[in-house]
From TrEMBL:
A Pfam family assignment: ABC_tran
Protein family: Belongs to the ABC transporter superfamily.
Gene Ontology CC: membrane
Protein name per Swiss-Prot or TrEMBL: Teichoic acid ABC transporter ATP-binding protein
Membrane-spanning ranges: none
Organism, scientific name: Streptomyces atratus
PROSITE patterns: ABC_TRANSPORTER_1, ABC_TRANSPORTER_2
GO molecular function, one term: ATP hydrolysis activity
Length: 261
């Protein structure tokens, strides 16, 4: 378990036995076949409504995050990492259990509701406003955001619509907008994996700064190196359950033993 010496530390996120269930409509599949009909009848018998399938993505996860921590979320594909982050951000309801947060958590890329038909320039303003920055603050930080993103390194791209950006460029701009503000709780889902190495180094440095500025950072990544370079604590999820919670080295070593990477 993570460090038990909690005296003087300020909790920012408390997850208490969190369960998240997705409901998928029209997931009957193979409408005409006898087995599909049979499974529909059996499901109805268990009280599930017709054509609705449940996916229990997070199962009884509990942890407390403290101010100043950078916490990595690891686990194989479909283990529930993004789902857990979306629940912490308040974007998904819990089926059971509760999430308590101090301040408004920002999930990178969602809170900054970027529009693909608008230029990068307009999106910086829009994303800033969506995160609660004033027009004055945005004006002050505009150039810093554009420079950090590196969008204009190869020409004047910031005045082009975002739909013309590569996925890496769009991810860089989203990260830059989100990172321009000091967040109480900042959650980053795979952002570092999309940029090139130069951008990754820049964003890792910024994550460390955000931590020092007293926020809590959550980072979902499949790059063990990014997690090692930025996080001091790691939560390992598997099949929706919290398998391990502890210091980065300890958890990553166990994860690497298990996954062979
Ligand atoms: N919108 C959705 N509707 C139904 N099921 C979903 C939805 N989003 C995710 N799931 C399911 O929830 C489970 C957890 O998915 P989630 O995206 O949280 O995993 P993850 O650990 O972030 O995966 P990855 O590493 O591949 O990004 C999976 O079984 C997935 O199929």
């Amino acid at each position: 378990m993570a460090d038990d010496n909690t005296s003087g530390r300020v909790p920012t996120v408390i997850a208490d036995d969190v369960h998240i269930v997705y409901r998928v409509n029209g997931a009957g599949g193979g409408k005409g076949s006898a087995t599909a009909a049979l499974s529909r009848i059996l499901r109805r018998g268990k009280g599930e409504s017709r054509g609705v399938r449940k996916v229990h993505a997070v199962r009884g996860v509990s942890f407390t995050a403290y101010r100043g921590e950078a916490i990595g979320l690891i686990g194989t594909n479909g283990s529930g990492k993004s789902t857990l982050l979306r629940a912490i951000a308040g974007l998904l309801p819990t089926e059971h259990g509760k999430v308590y947060t101090d301040g408004q958590p920002s999930l990178l890329g969602v809170n900054a509701a970027l529009m693909s038909d608008l230029t990068g320039e307009r999106n910086v303003v829009l994303g800033g406003l969506a995160m609660g920055m004033s027009r004055e603050e945005i004006r002050e930080r505009y150039q810093g955001i554009v420079d950090f993103s590196g969008i204009n390194e190869k020409g004047d791209f910031i005045t082009l619509p975002m739909r013309t950006y590569s996925s890496g460029m769009a991810a860089r701009l989203r990260f830059s907008i989100a990172a321009a503000k000091n967040h109480d709780v900042l959650m980053i889902d795979e952002a570092l994996a999309t940029g090139d190495r130069k951008f990754q180094i820049r964003s890792e440095k910024r994550i460390r700064e955000l931590r020092k500025e007293a926020g809590t950072v959550f980072l979902v990544s499949h790059s063990n190196k990014s997690i090692r370079d930025t996080c001091d604590r790691v939560l390992w999820l598997e099949k929706g359950e919290l398998l391990m919670d502890g210091p980065t080295d300890e958890v990553l070593k166990a994860y690497e033993r298990e996954t062979g990477k």
